[in-house]
Amino acid sequence: MLLQDKIALIYGTANHRSFAWHIAQAFAREGARLILTFQNERLEKNVRELAETLPGTMILPCDVTEEAQVQAVYDRIGAEYGGLDAVVHAVAFARKEDLDGDFVQTSREGFQLAHDVSAYSLVAVTRPAVPLFEKRGGGTVLTLTYLGAERAVPNYNVMGVAKAALEASVRYLAMDLGPKNIRVNAISAGPVSTLAARGISGFTDILSVVRDRSPLRRNIDQDEVADTAVFLASQWARGITGETLHVDAGYHIMGL
What we know:
By secondary structure, the protein is of the alpha/beta class. It has eight helices and seven strands, in the order E-H-E-H-E-H-E-H-H-E-H-E-H-H-E. The longest helix has 21 residues, at 157-177.
């Protein structure tokens, strides 16, 4: 029970394939009490049905681009629990037209939207968490990224640039918040067939390449990422911050 009695807030659950949902299950398995958010009414039913399988889970609405909604989440957590131990940020979005074709054709609006939702939102959900972390003597922030932040991946385009900004944000947040005993890390997950991933053209080809060329000669699954999240949120990782930890069957080390 690595997270016994920890209070964890998880953004980004959409359906049973979501990284966020698998992380929620792993956190619950290790003893954490959970708060899940849903973005809009379209996703609310899915999130509520999933949350019902984890007794005691709180469900709250939150569009991470709306400051008032973000603050309302933390106000409710503060009133209910008095503090917070972990925030998991599994949120990203780019318009489909900005993931097709050439990156050079990215619109200004598409660039701004991808960075607002996929990168700035980490800052937006971390800032109001700090007072609640301090009440518990510290805390952990985790986010999800991908190799496209480090290398040019076909059809990842503006999302890769946004993920690069996200990874830089992890380092700067870690520097700022370390004196408060708040750790900030990212997990760079290998490709997995999630709802978001299936929106990338040629995604099945990416899966095949990673399977054939990674040192482990296979793809990963969501539970491997979830177990890594448990580790990073636990005392076992108390000396790790500002890190991007790859969970990708080793693919990122390969030259060809």
